[in-house]
Structure formats: structure tokens, C-alpha cells
Amino acid sequence: MKRFIFLLLFALVGSISNGSASPACIKASDTSRVVSVGGSVTEVIFYLNLQSNLVARDITSNFPPQALELPSVGYVRSLSTEGVLSVSPTLILGEADMGPPFVIQQFRNAVVDLRIIPDTFSGNGIEEKVRCVGQILGLGKQKLEQKLNKLSVINAKIRSSKATRAISKKRYIIILMMRGTSPFVAGAGTSGDGFIRMIGGVNAMASANGWKPVGVESIIGNKPDVIIVTERAFKPFGNIGKFLSQTGLSASRAGKVGAVLVEDGMSLLGFGPRTLIVAQNILSKAHIMIKE
Questions:
Q1: Does pTM surpass 0.85?
Q2: Which residues span the domain enclosing 171?
Q3: What is the CATH number of the domain that holds 215?
């Protein structure tokens, strides 16, 4: 009996070590009609070439462009039960921030297979997200490992690159959008904070919690070496010179040397496969901008 228990435990440990340990990542019984809620989840599904059974997506799922051909079920954080269930899903895959909570409960009450994909704001977290989605959708182990290996190579380069070491401890801010004249920045616990840590930097606005509007004086006082701004926030200004002068950020440490990088918000903050590519690009550009 003891030997049986030992072998059972050994088998369980082995199964966990070869895949995601989260119960949310167990293979689904019916993947014939999949609804994807969250841009990064949809991106992962397409990255794994498993989009053939997708029947709908949320409005943040705008990459790749083919995803836009699918009907929308609304915004990830403000879904309606009727809107999602109207497409008769057998499986709903969602990001951790999907909601509202009462709608999530209604999905469960409707006996729909709902999976909330674990989300960790790191390079390893991206790999685990891909692994989890692949396991749920029944992708073969060999194909899944091939896809993961591509990401692992990029992840390893980010961790070990000379650029990472050269700009280690440099101070970054990420501006998501503008609220009036106040930049809306990434504080502690956000995907932006996770991105900065992933590239080896220091979040200059870590004293704030969550995404917060802050005064320009606060940003200047926190001495960022690099300003990363989303395309959405940058678009009204047209060029870096106008962005810096009209926001007052020209007086910041980063502004004085023009160390401003503009990135697609979902690529930067979604923590899908593209986020690793963005991290590589930012490391390369920032290394040149703030080279001492």
C-alpha cells in the first residue's frame, strides 16, 4: 500500500513538472467553440495556430489582424452574460481581469467551461501563459515545446544580454495615457511595473500603487532615465519634441536627452509573446539613449 501511494505521488509530481501546475490549465473536454476574452489570450491562441475553433473575442483582442474578423462579445472587464452565451461557447478562455464578477459567476452557473488563465508579469509568466493555453486546447506536447522554445530563447537573451547589464538599475516610467494634462503612469503591481523589472530597470513611479494620474512635477522629481509612452498617449502630440514640451516633461532627466520610446500598448503591456520582442527592442534602444 505504501509503495502504491509513493508511486502515485511520484506520478503526480512528474505530471506537474512537465506542465503547468494550475488546475485551470487541464485539457478541456470540448474545444469546438472557443471564446477568447483578453488580448494576450487571443494572441497566444493565434501564436499556437489554434484559432480554427475560435467563434468570438473581446474588443481588446485586436492582434493579429485576423482576430478582428471574429464577432466581439464586448470589453474584457465589462462583459454581459447574454453577449457571450449568444455564440454558444463550449469553452471560455479569459485573462485574470475579466469581469464583472457577477457575470463570471453566471458563466459558472450556466455550466460553461470557463478558464481564467494565470497571469504573472514576467518573461517566465509569458511562457507559462502559452503553456497553459496550449494544454487547455490540447496541443501536442512536441508542438507546444517547439513554440515554447522560441520564447525561451528570447527570454534567455533578455536576461543575459549586455544591454540588460549595462542599463541595470536605470529608472523608467511608463505612460499609458494622458488624463487632461496629467500622465497616467504605471505604479507598483501593474503590468508596466512588471515590464520594467523584466528588462532589469527600476520603476521610477513605484511609490504609486496601480495605474495612477500623477503631476509632471512628481515625474521630474523621480528622475526617470527613460520615458516609455504608449502610441495611444503619444498620438495627439505627433512627435517627441511636442510631447516633451507640451507635457512639461522636457525638464525631466529623460526629457533633457530625448530618451522617449513609443510602443504599442498591447504589445508592451499585454504579456503575450509580442511583449518579449518589445522588451528586446527597448533594451537595445535604451542602451544607446542612456549609454554612459
A1: yes
A2: 162-289
A3: 3.40.50.1980
Q: What is the DSSP string of 107-121?
A: HHHTT-EEEE----S
Question: Do 71 and 128 contact (CB within 8 A), yes or no?
Answer: no
Same domain membership, residue 115 and residue 82: yes
Please give the Cα distance from 269 to 286 (Å, whole number).
17
**Which residue in the block uniquely carries the three cell numbers 504608449?**
230
Q: State residue 238 phi and psi, 5-degree precision.
A: 85, -40
Query: Could you read off the pLDDT tens digit of each residue along the chain, which spans 292 residues?
Result: 444 333 333 333 343 344 565 789 999 999 999 999 999 999 999 999 999 999 999 999 999 999 999 999 999 999 999 999 999 999 999 999 999 999 999 999 998 999 999 999 999 999 999 999 999 999 999 999 999 999 999 999 999 886 777 777 899 999 999 987 789 999 999 999 999 999 999 999 999 999 999 999 999 999 999 999 999 999 999 999 999 999 999 999 999 999 999 999 999 999 999 999 999 999 999 888 876 5
Cα–Cα distance measured from residue 170 to residue 17, given in angstroms and rounded to the nearest whole number:
35
> DSSP string spanning 65-81?
GGGGGSPB---TTS--H
Q: In what order do the strands lie in the sheet with 91-94?
A: 54-57, 34-37, 91-94, 113-116
What is the C-alpha to C-alpha distance for residues 186 and 196, in angstroms, rounded to an integer? 10
Give the DSSP H/E element, type plus range, for residue 127. Answer: helix 123-136
C-alpha cell at 138: 490540447
The residues, any chain, with a CB within 8 Å of residue 40's CB and separated by 6 or more, are: 95, 119, 129, 266, 270, 271, 272
Integer Rg of the chain from CA:
21
Query: H or E element: which one contains 101?
Result: helix 101-109
Beta strand 171-179 pairing with 113-116 = unpaired
Closest CA to 36 of 62, 2, 1, 9: 62
Q: Domain tally for the chain?
A: 2
